[in-house]
Design goal:
The chain has one helix and ten strands; from the N terminus they run ββββββββββα. It is mainly beta and 154 residues long. It is globular.
């Protein structure tokens, strides 16, 4: 799976989310996957959850600047994994040793449904969701808009 967006952060107040899919009842592990600020830092994080949370954080970002963010997780490969990209460059990747928890909750763009104080402060543009993990070349192409990535049936 892949979630991608152009974001223009204007301020942070905590875990401000670009997008996420929350747990069924708002209890731990809180969300199944998402991208948002890591607390009161200027670091974005990509989170994927099972009974544990796996996360990758970006370097410190500058407010008031457009940034392209992409989080992927591949549960079908030989080793389940997640990757996080900022401006088309891989920030980090790691194996996910447990099955990702799921729920019938909606994907929320610009916030977290259980706490409106965690809404995104800024602009989100060109949000895209794919039903597969995009590869590094596809992520770079998406960032550079070199080639449209086919949006498979979701």
């Amino acid at each position: 799976r892949t979630g991608a967006a152009w974001v223009f952060p204007e301020n942070i107040t905590g875990f401000n989310y670009v997008f996420n899919k929350a747990s069924a009842d708002g209890t731990y592990p809180y969300l199944h996957y998402g991208i948002g600020f890591s607390g009161d830092t200027l670091r974005l994080r990509f989170v994927v959850s099972s009974m544990n949370q796996f996360q990758i954080e970006s370097e410190v970002l500058e407010l008031g600047r457009w940034v392209h963010v992409v989080g992927t997780f591949d549960l079908d490969g030989p080793v389940p994994s997640m990757r996080f990209y900022v401006d088309g460059e891989l920030v980090g990747g790691e194996g996910v040793s447990e099955a990702i928890v799921t729920s019938d909750r909606n994907l929320v763009v610009g916030g977290w449904e259980y706490d409106t104080s965690e809404s995104w402060i800024g602009v989100i543009d060109e949000m895209a969701v794919f039903n597969r993990a995009l590869g590094a070349d596809e992520v770079r192409a998406l960032c550079l808009m070199a080639t449209p990535i086919p949006c498979d049936a979701i």
